[in-house]
């Protein structure tokens, strides 16, 4: 049986005027997982069964992705809306707070959500996405500007969609296998799952719209205070999209911070080194 066909419950929740798809397993306190680009709930396939032993694990498809609603307006893909989505998911599932886990774009949303609603996050776990203030600083350096050059390409209309769709979504396969240190972390079935999710009608433009609004939102236009929510950062050191140096100085923005670095591991940290990521999360949560 493939991971996509596993005995996990698929469900939908309506929040902030849209319907979001999610996968869930387990019972207990809520652990909410937010994926990045160009992924969907499936990027947490190695974590869901492990943490379902202790929590009600919910891995959501962010708006615009896979089986979640895909509003057509570009203006629908801004941080204020993402924050409302997550608030609605937590409350709609019948919880007041959660352990929030985010990677890449999901991590950016997790950072911003935790600043907006610290009372709703018991602990924050961030994987390979810098604190927004540190990312803003990084973009003032030539090294990080070069690493983030794809962000500027994605600002263009139409062309990014064309390039990604070309040759049966070959760029997506290149993104996963090309960036990964351990190429075997992604089976061909994994790659096909990501291609199929991106190929759903309206999904690709929705996914890119996150980037097309990035410079208008909270990430770059906010004075960041000190976060009081205990936070764990897990960082694959061979990330070609964000340099390890972006983690330096994060403690100035997070009062209770732990960072675990994983050498010889790429941006896709929870998929490439799932056993170690799970171990660090379990140790942090005292499981």
Automatic annotation (TrEMBL):
GO terms of molecular function: hydrolase activity
Gene3D superfamilies, alphabetized: alpha/beta hydrolase (3.40.50.1820)
Keywords in alphabetical order: Hydrolase
Residues covered by the AB hydrolase-1 domain: 29-273
Pfam families hit by this protein: Abhydrolase_1 (PF00561)
The protein, known as: Alpha/beta hydrolase
């Amino acid at each position: 049986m493939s991971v996509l066909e596993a005995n996990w419950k698929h469900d939908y929740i309506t929040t902030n005027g849209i319907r979001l798809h999610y996968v869930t397993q387990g019972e207990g306190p809520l652990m909410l997982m937010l994926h990045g680009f160009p992924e969907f709930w499936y990027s947490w396939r190695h974590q869901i069964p492990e943490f379902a032993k202790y929590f009600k694990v919910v891995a959501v498809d962010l708006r615009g992705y896979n089986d979640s609603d895909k509003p057509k307006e570009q203006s629908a893909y801004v941080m204020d809306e993402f924050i409302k989505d997550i608030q609605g998911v937590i409350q709609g599932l019948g919880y007041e707070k959660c352990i929030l886990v985010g990677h890449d774009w999901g991590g950016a949303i997790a950072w911003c959500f935790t600043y907006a609603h610290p009372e709703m996050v018991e602990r924050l776990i961030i994987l390979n996405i810098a604190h927004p203030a540190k990312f803003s600083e990084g973009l003032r350096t030539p090294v990080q500007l070069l690493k983030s050059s794809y962000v500027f390409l994605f600002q263009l209309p139409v062309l990014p969609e064309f390039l990604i769709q070309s040759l049966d979504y070959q760029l997506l396969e290149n993104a996963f296998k090309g960036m990964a240190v351990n190429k075997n972390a992604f089976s061909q079935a994994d790659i096909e799952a990501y291609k199929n999710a991106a190929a759903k009608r309206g999904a690709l433009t929705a996914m890119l719209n996150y980037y097309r609004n990035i410079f208008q939102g909270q990430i770059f236009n906010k004075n960041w205070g000190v976060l009081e929510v205990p936070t764990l950062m897990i960082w694959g050191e061979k990330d070609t999209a964000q340099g390890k140096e972006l983690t330096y100085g994060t403690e100035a923005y997070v009062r209770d911070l732990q960072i675990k670095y994983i050498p010889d591991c790429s941006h896709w940290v929870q998929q490439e080194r799932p056993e170690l990521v799970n171990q660090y999360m379990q140790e942090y949560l005292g499981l």
